[in-house]
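U., I forgot to send this yesterday:
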Amino acid sequence: MHVVLQIFTLLGSLGLFLYGMTLMSESLQKVAGNGLRNFLASMTSTPLRRILTGVLVTAIIQSSSATTVMTVSFVNAGLLTLTQSIGVIMGANIGTTATAWIISLLGFTADITVISIPLVAVGFAFMMSPKVKKKNIGELIIGFALLFLGLSYLKNSVPDLNSSPQLLAFVQRWTDWGFWSILIFVGIGAVMTILMQSSSATMALTLVMVNFGWIPFAEAAAMVLGENIGTTVTVNIAAAVGNVSAKRAARAHLLFNVFGVVLVLLVYNPFLKMVAKIVVGLGCEDPMLPYATISAVNPEKASVTLLYAVSMVHTLFNIGNTLILVWFTPLLVKIVTWMVPSPKEEEPFRLQYIQGGILGTPELSLTQSKMEIVHFAQLMKKQYAFAREAVQKADTEEFDKLFGKLEHYEQIADRIEYEIADYLTKISEGEISPESGRRIQAMYKIIGELESVGDSGYNIGRILQRKNINGLHFEDNLVKKLNQMFNLLDIAFDAMIYNCDKGYTKISNISNALDAEYDINEYRNNLREEHLVNIENNVYSYFVGNYYIDLVSEIERVGDFIINISEAIIEINV
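Result:
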């Protein structure tokens, strides 16, 4: 019974550590908000800046998985290129080494649990504030406290090997097989990281095990290598429902870490000796010596030696791997492009950017929503290319095929509107700022207007279909004038898509959209006046004129939907 309780205490301690890590990481993302997104998206112009961006963001939010998933989502949303994302991912691997050093320096050598409970009190006081930002800061403080509280319980719940020598004997059976033992512990590190979905948690467990002499330094270093492979699984899972670019970025992360592990394993003993020299240079003992030998001289120094040595393995591995592979980024891009080829033909109704689910913060999720809306707008412009062609080929056998496309795109518009609206509803269920609330309301309006644009495209097809059923024909001059209406509509579409892409933070006015709307209305008015004269003079029949002016009115109505979208964007700042 005592053993069972001890196991559950160990698992509970690990769970507390994981929860603290998750809470701290997510709250840091919320506190950073748009600033973090803008920093990640803008600081990627050179390889060095990409790596530094990954280092800084990961060091701040204390989660390489979060940084990498965020990076993949930005690739998915078109905010980062594949080449840029690889640099950021390399930097994230370096940034995550800060976690190991924080745990080594504070979690073991200092009793930070003394202030953990007071920190919970401080964090709770912040969470009582009605302001969202202060609530997030409160979560951050509580997450930090829980992280080290969990680590403290983890240390205290580890069985004492002096009183339970059978445990040491069990572990030692895995450490007596030479290089096979190293490979086994690489696998253990990878599997544990996959199961816990956190390399930081596995690293903490590794540090606890080596600190208490459960495993030798060489096997602990092997677990660190395995953790670097296991952490890539989270990213590949997140990218599984993303687009081709997102999948390629995730594969690049996997290849990057696997290559580094294989390289280190090829020179494993020299690598460990180099780490040992650095640690000895810091005033510690030789970590390559048996734990009993080191602890016999100075137990406290033995603990510090092994903690620093394992942390140094993590740091040197990631820095060295980055310094080598950063020069081969173009080759890595080619390899992952070959591994994940572009589909021959992608279904137009497939969502491009919000398949991966809600991100860590509303701001990041709303960025994906914005990109999906831009994609929605581009699809609707494509529908009107078919509508223009349908007008020009209304009297040919090709019309039925074009009419089918117009109907299909109308169905696509219905489906995308529903999917985006459902996604926005999920975002609004969380804690959002007043500004995010306004953005969500504007997005609801925008997708509604875009769905109406899709309906009008189908209506144009139906008007032409009725004309054909009645055996009527448009003369070339009418087709030419309708074509000019479509030209003006294209300009309006381009203005709308530009405004949607830039967003409310980067446009101060919508004069481009207003000018396009004015031109459409003026041309519609001219055509109406001309139409009345033509009917009076019998230039064409009344029935032909009816269908003609119905098309003019429907195209002008699309212009109204389009200007409503730009107005919704600019109204967010009001």
